[in-house]
Amino acid sequence: MRIPEEADFASPTHGPRVSARIGLWLGIAFGLCFITGLISHGIQHPAAWFTWPSRPVSLYRITQGVHVTSGVAAIPLLLAKLWSVYPKLFGRPLVKSVPHALERGSILVLIGASFFELLTGVFNVAQNYPWAFFFPTAHYAVAWIAVGALLVHIAVKLPVIREALTRSEEEPRPTTGALSRRGFLLTTGVATGAAVLATVGGTVPWLRNVSVFASRSATGVPVNRRAEAAQVSTVDESWRLTVGDVEFSLAELRAMPQTTADLPIACVEGWSASATWTGVPVKDLLERAGVPAGSDVRVESLEQGGLYRSSTLPGTHTADPLTLLALRMNGEVLTLDHGYPCRVIAPSRPGVLQTKWVSRLEVR
């Protein structure tokens, strides 16, 4: 049986002009996804030089929404890109030169890393983890590999890309039943738009009813980790909140001046939801405990285990009057699943850092 050759693939959907245009869109999607992913990683694992503002209050909601949406958009774009170039796999000889070998090697790494990032990202959005490794660490590490391979690939193919994007020529007539170049690009755009629309409602509330994969909850605010999973079953009258060297009972917290604010919870999985929160500003609690304004604070939870049983509130957030130790949500006392007796709600923070069942604020 004869092995196909590159010349056997005459469809106008295969070629540098199609590949370059889809590659441009894919590069934009990858770039947005990578940059916003770095932001999310930096907030959760901040370096000494990293700071993240507390305003606007929906800033993290926007950046993480862009992260997930651009990742979803990259899926049909990557598949279309592979379709446009796969005849190159049948080119002979397999390796023509050192640059050609470098190009093929970078493509292999890029494809593997890209599929790993996109597939694990989709599972993360679905909160399904059928693997043994820790998702955030692996996802972050492989993102650097994917971007490195992408930059090598672009550097090698830059002359071809430049010529394909600037060259103007009449589109060849497709063979009977074949899709034209414009038709293929249009189909790719429609598929990408449909994928985005199916998920973007998790970030854009007014699109939630048409986004079939957007998170929904009867209370308006989904719960990722319930009290049962956190091994928090009851909170009795002996509960006290410790702030520095001072203790507050729940009755004392309720008697303090309260602040009510509309703030979103934005989760790393891409969903976000707004609610009306009522509670005591953290800055007021720190002031009563004699803690200097703008201090970094470690928040401890009643949760017995788990990677996110504690978090650190940086000074930019503890000084913000909208960073609350919330006691009520939408006018009702917090349920146990939502963090009763109190939880942190800080503007422009990932949901995993909005610690529930708070027991201590420790100055760092």
Structure description:
By secondary structure, the chain is α+β, with helices and mostly antiparallel strands. It folds into two domains: 6-207, Fumarate Reductase Cytochrome B subunit, CATH 1.20.950; 241-363, Sulfite Oxidase, Chain A, domain 2 (Alpha-Beta Complex). It contains eight helices and ten strands. The chain has helices at 16-44, 59-85, 98-125, 135-166, 181-199, 250-255, 282-288, 315-318, and strands at residues 241-243, 246-248, 259-266, 272-281, 297-301, 310-313, 324-329, 332-333, 343-345, 358-363. The strands form two sheets. It has a five-stranded mixed sheet with strand order 2-1-10-5-6. Strands 3, 4, 7, 8 and 9 form a five-stranded antiparallel sheet that branches. The mean pLDDT is 88. InterPro entries: Mopterin_OxRdtase_euk (IPR008335), OxRdtase_Mopterin-bd_dom (IPR000572), OxRdtase_Mopterin-bd_sf (IPR036374), TAT_signal_bac_arc (IPR019546). Keywords: Membrane, Transmembrane, Transmembrane helix. Pfam families: Oxidored_molyb. This is Molybdopterin-dependent oxidoreductase.
